[in-house]
Amino acid sequence: MYIDIHSHIIPGIDDGAKDEIMALEMLKIAQKSGTSHIIATPHYVYGNTRYGFDTILEKCAELNMLAASMGIKVTIYPGCEVFVTPEIIELFEQRLVGTLAGSRYMLVEFPMMSIPPYTDNTLYNLQLKGITPIIAHPERYTEIQQNSEVLKSFIDRGILVQVNSGSITGVYGRETKKAVMRIIKEGFVHFVASDAHSDNRRNPDMRKAASIIEKNFGPKMRDDLFIRNPLKIIDIGK
Ligand SMILES: [Fe+2]
Fold it and tell me: What's the whole-model pTM score?
């Protein structure tokens, strides 16, 4: 049983599932591959995204009903993936962005090429509000690939890290795979999630990644990253 804390499964809202048919296909893949709970995390990019968190709550409830009517036994929770910007606090107060599954954790992504200078302050301000930021897929960011110590300074300040299952299986290429294995080995990673965008290349099946982690780091690490730590988020959200 896996808990997937990062997915673009809500249909027709961002660059993820393009319609209900695809969202259902993705949920079937999740169920078949042993994922029982999945957090929907549509992108939120300040100045670009037109929907607020209420829309995500509504669409999430709709997708849960649709899945149940099709006999799919996967529960979908609301969340979002916020692009780092100094406005995050206001966005949160205006209910344009929200936390993962009603918890105190928020998924935050950085630009691919470099980490903006306001990032430290922005994440600190979130922490002052009682929210723990989770950095989305740092293994894909050039700056982290070149120097993973940057991650350590975030972790030392209580920030958590999520990596993509596709990075472990090699979907994003050799540099990303090298980076993800290195940061897991260094103990800089708390969650593996699918970041699924479709029923195709970036789908919700995490089995292969889980077996690679088990083979390289043992069953405890696999369970921590795929089940135990993600369960803390869902539990808190109850
Ligand atoms: Fe994502």
Answer: 0.97
